[in-house]
Amino acid sequence: MVNESRHPAANQTDPHIAGRTLRPVATTTPRSAVPEVIGNPAEDPNGKLRLVVGYDNSSDLEQLRRDLIGTALDLVGYEQVAQRVFDTAIRLDADVVLLSPNCFGYRKELVIDLRMQRGRPIPVIGWVETRTDEGRLMVAAGAVNYISLPTDAHQVARLVQFAQVAVDRLRRERDDGLVSLSAGSMIPRGAAWQSKVISVFVPKGGGSHRSTTAVNLATVLSHVTMGNQKTLLLDFDMVKGDCHTMLGYIHESEQRIALQRNMAVLERGLKDLFEEALRRYDPRGEGWLNLPTIKQYFVDSPALRETQLDLLPGLMRPTDSGEPVFQADRQAVFGVARAIIEIVRRAYAFTVIDIGQDFLAPLHEAAIRQSDDVLVVCPPTLTAALDTRYALQALSAHFGDLSKFRLLISGFKAEYGMSERELTDLVGIPLAGVIPFDDTVATQAINTCSPYALTDAGPLGSAIRHLGALYLPQLGPAFKARTRQATSRSLLKSLFVRGA
User: What is the pLDDT of residue 495?
Assistant: First the structure.
């Protein structure tokens, strides 16, 4: 069990804390472990330099995204943990990295290793507070230069200039057999943490693993051996909810299946909550909906043993979305959905929302608008990547921008013929992570109602735990503890046996 006293931020749920959430720090990748790139890396088709950013504060990142539009830099990825900045830069063939020394786990070796990367040098430009020595210290650690916060058009112009000069110079030095590095010291700084609303969305149905990802991400964030945070899983799919089934719950009308499969029964869920909320709905007033009312429609807490996970079950049957409660007044349904999210986000460290394909459906649109991050799940196929690309163009027109959208590649296998870079370039939004393909593990997890985040010690389980660490830095020590435990899969499964 994670000792919360060791993590002072573990119970901190104030949504107004500055900065984005963080991920755990792995040991700095040694130069000998960096994969060798054979031949010349592919040139960017639009002629821009590929930029990966390691940031500290989300508002600074969003301002940078806006200022980079129309420049010679193409933002292909951003991370808040220094080691993940390194990994993303290597995977996505970055040309240059903009790195804040306030990134969680920053250390000078990352700057040097990027510069010494075997395929080609990747220069690092510091992103530092004004009136500090951080820029000088980063240059002493091997950075080529630095820009200052707050970022504005002048600083972005300097960034573009520094990047273009550094890329050309370092590659020329590499070609000439010259490497110029300097070493210094850098003191890591603290990092902020805050609660999040995270929607999991896919524009193309079938084989996308959207609901599976939502369930496992919520499990990682809430289980006592991992995140141990108060987490709510909202199933807002307006076609048919599956999250409750994956966690071992079934509608009370299916008593026979419940007994056969050792599942718990549900009496009510999303449709019933909306019927009650719409009876109270008053768009001009306050207090017509509150947390105690919403909680009446949750499953028995927790949704999984040994977790702090609550669950609002989704629509039990595909026909539920056609019920009058969802068809009478679209604006009222949207208003209720938005109010639910606004209320629960103040009570939970994390709210994970599983939403369906149609982003114009009122529940889906409310979730996207109220989310801090939207994970766009895309399998490694050309059709899925193009469908996602076209959907994001429509989303950008409807919501104004894509600043909160991040790509999550699911079911990935290199043998399928599409690389992570190709998928990221096709879709056109920064990469959040890659979930590998393991059909056996994923299918067994669904059939046994046991999230693979808890039962799989292999690549699939590891990938979803690292995705959770995107939002919660305390997961780093939990990973190490789990590795030492070597708990058997059968023992973990026994945690989830329920009486009917």
Answer: 39
| CATH number of the domain enclosing 292 | 3.40.50.300
Residues sharing a CB contact under 8 Å with residue 110, sequence separation 6 or more, in sequence order = 28, 82, 83, 85, 86, 99, 124
pLDDT averaged over every residue in the chain: 82
Cβ neighbours of residue 433 closer than 8 Å, sequence gap 6 or more: 408, 409, 463, 466, 467, 470
What is the chain's alpha carbon radius of gyration, rounded to the nearest angstrom?
23
DSSP string, 72-101: SEEEEEEESBHHHHHHHHHHTT-SEEEE-T
Alpha helices in 345-456 (DSSP H): 362-370, 382-399, 420-427, 439-447, 452-455
Average pLDDT over residues 454-470: 91
Q: What is the pLDDT of residue 20?
A: 32
Question: Which tokens go with 329?
Answer: 């007044």
Which residue has better confidence, 387 or 483?
A: 387
The span from the CA of 64 to the CA of 74, in Å, is: 11
Residue 3 falls within a domain, yes or no? no
DSSP state of 494: G
Q: Are residues 152 and 280 in the same domain?
A: no
Instruction: Indicate the number of domains in the chain.
Output: 2
* Least confident among 15-19, 165-169, 199-203, 423-427: 15-19
- In Å, what is the CA distance from 86 to each residue of 28, 30, 81, 90, 372? 9, 11, 9, 6, 24
The two three-digit tokens of residue 481, written as one number: 């503890």
Judged by DSSP in three states, 157 sits in helix
Q: In 3-state terms, what secondary structure has residue 350?
A: strand
Taking the C-alpha atoms of residue 224 and residue 213, their distance in angstroms, rounded to an integer, is: 19
Instruction: Give the model confidence (pLDDT) of 171-198 as tens digits.
Output: 888 777 665 333 332 223 233 345 789 9
Whether the Cβ atoms of residue 433 and residue 470 lie closer than 8 Å to each other: yes
Range of the domain at 451: 196-496
Closest CA to 222 of 15, 25, 474, 20: 474
What is the reported pLDDT for 180?
39
| CATH code, 105 | 3.40.50.2300
Q: 171 and 310, same structural domain?
A: no
